[in-house]
Amino acid sequence: MILRRLVLPALFGLLLPLVLVSAVSAAVRHTVSPGETLSYIAIIYETTVDEIAGRNGLANPDFIYPGQELDIPGAGGGADGGAYVVQPGDTLSGIAWQQGVTTDALQAANGISDADYVYIGQVLTIPSAYSEPALPTLAFPDRPWDPSLEAMIDDIAWMEGVDPGLVKAVATVESGWSQWAISYAGAIGIMQVMPGTVWWLEWQVFGFDFNEYESAWDNVRLGARYLRILLDATGWDYYDAVAAYYQGLTPTEAGVYYAGTDDYASMVLAVRAAYWP
Q: What is the CATH number of the domain that holds 86?
């Protein structure tokens, strides 16, 4: 993403104080979007899972659900956190560099959907410094071989109006088609749907319960419907839909891509092209 300098009338800038706001301790509110995990919310706000879980009384950090409101501690009051008043000629990338944070983190902490647009006098929350953990490198997976399971995925994909090859590629990268796979973040089964997303799909989309832990049919049905929802939301852009499957819809719609998202989305599309073109 190329950041352009925002040019505003100089006269308007003279009416505003050219000062920095002293560091303040301020929590921000984050609305969980479908597919988001607490670990990635922690990364983008440059805090930790334990701090968010403690602030919000989450006994099980793996269970968050779309629409849930979370207080994000330390966003604006961490190690070097605080606030900053935008000055004439400032850009978001320049402010981020000056404050020692990433542009994506600064954009997310302030709910800015267009990184090119900041205005003179705008008060920005500066997230605290945080070292993002290294993500594992994805290896190109072998093509799973299970004719009966593949036929089932085909049936469900057509039922949900989704390209079967895309569903199979997501399932391949997520779990290698293993119904018994459970990720470190609590994602479940073949499609690796997060518990909170399962809850949302059951109660807000389908209106009935699924047995996503034991039933491969139920697990694929949930994942395929979720993928269809993301395709609809992104204008059937396969890259963005798969990116949203990985990191959540809200940051994807805002043009914010977390570390690892491009590797994941590119891998899914490459697997689809290689095995189910």
A: 3.10.350.10
Name the residue among 255, 246, 261 with its Cα closest to residue 117.
Answer: 255
What residues contact 116, with CB distance under 8 A and at least 6 apart? Answer: 3, 4, 6, 92
Is residue 104 within a helix (H) or strand (E), and if so which, with residue range? helix 103-109
Which of 21-25, 35-39, 49-53, 96-100 reaches the highest mean pLDDT? 49-53
State the pairing for strand pair 123-126/82-85: antiparallel
Per mean pLDDT, which range of 51-55, 147-151, 159-163, 194-198 is the poorest? 51-55
Question: Do both 152 and 211 map to the same domain?
Answer: yes
The span from the CA of 169 to the CA of 254, in Å, is: 25
Examine the pLDDT at 75 and tell me if it is beyond 70: no
- Cβ–Cβ contacts within 10 Å for residue 203, how many? 12
Contact 33, 200 (CB under 8 A): no
Closest CA to 196 of 67, 45, 50: 67
Q: Are residues 160 and 258 in the same domain?
A: yes
**Token representation of residue 96:** 């981020």
Exposure string (b/e) for 177-196, b if CB count within 10 Å is 16 or more? Answer: bebebeeeebbbbbbbbbbb
Contact between residue 256 and residue 227 where contact means Cβ atoms under 8 Å apart: no
Q: Which residue has the higher pLDDT, 137 or 65?
A: 65
Regarding whether 261 and 164 lie in a shared domain, the answer is yes
Print the domain residue range for 204: 147-275
Confidence of residue 136 (pLDDT cuts 50, 70, 90): low
What confidence tier does 94 reach under pLDDT thresholds 50, 70, 90?
Answer: confident
